[in-house]
Structures are given as C-alpha cells and as structure tokens.
Specification:
This protein is α/β, with parallel strands linked by helices. The chain is 25% helix and 26% strand. Strands 1-7-6-2-5-4-3 form a seven-stranded mixed sheet, covered by helices on one side.
C-alpha cells in the first residue's frame, strides 16, 4: 500500500497522470471515495496520462463514457448488479481497454478478480489522501 497526500485538485490531477503510466490494457481500476472526494479529477488525470485530449466528464447519467484507450464508469445510480449486467458492463471489462469505475460497490459481483484500487480520503477542504 502506498499513500500520497495531495494539497489541491491540480496536484491530484498530476498524480493521476503519472499513475496512468503504471496501467496496461485490460486493467480495471476502482476509484473509491465519498461524494466530492475527487474521483472524477482522478479519472481526468488518468485519461490525460493515457493520451486522451477531450474533456472527461463524470458519466453519472450515461453510466459509462468511452474514450480511445479507456472506459469511465459511474455506478452511483446503478440499483443492482442485474441492472449493470443488462447494460452490458461485463463486456466492457473483457474489452481489453482500461476501465475506471466510480461507485464500484454497486456492481461488486460483476467486477473481475484482478482489479486495482485507488481510495481518496478527504483530509480538508482541498487536501486528499490517495491510497493505492
């Protein structure tokens, strides 16, 4: 386990850009943390580190957004694993692309066994503890 203390969203973004270098095709990364902890900032930084140049937005209402090397999931509104299965989530995990998953606890039974995890813990207004 590694811990990094970020003092701003910009620092979190840069950390995530660097973290992206450790990812390989097919990796599934669970982005965990309470509402407003910075999961979308992490996703944006990882995307930039993977070469995505377009704006990365939280897919809260679309459930999943696709970018050239990755998929970004927001499972906050997923009610159960059956709903996620009907939406074809399992197929995304087998696609060979990197998958970033926010609110993964809502689809726990569909996740592959080889997931990586990043946990964000609020330590103040702008300070975050990032645990990998």
């Amino acid at each position: 386990m590694a811990v990094f203390i970020s003092h701003s969203p910009e620092e979190t973004f840069r950390w995530a850009q660097n973290y992206a270098k450790s990812l390989s095709a097919g990796d599934v990364v669970l982005l965990e943390g309470e509402m407003g902890a910075g999961k979308t900032v992490l996703a944006q930084g990882i995307a930039r580190g993977l070469g995505v140049r377009e704006d990365v937005l939280s897919p809260t209402y679309a459930y999943v957004n696709s970018y050239a090397p990755m998929f970004h999931f927001d499972c906050y509104r997923i009610e159960n694993e059956r709903q996620a299965e009907e939406l074809g989530f399992a197929d995304y995990f087998d696609s060979g692309k990197i998958c970033l998953v926010e609110w993964s606890e809502n689809i726990r039974g569909l996740l592959p066994g080889h997931c990586k995890k990043i946990t964000l813990i609020k330590r103040g207004e702008r300070e975050r503890e990032i645990v990998t």
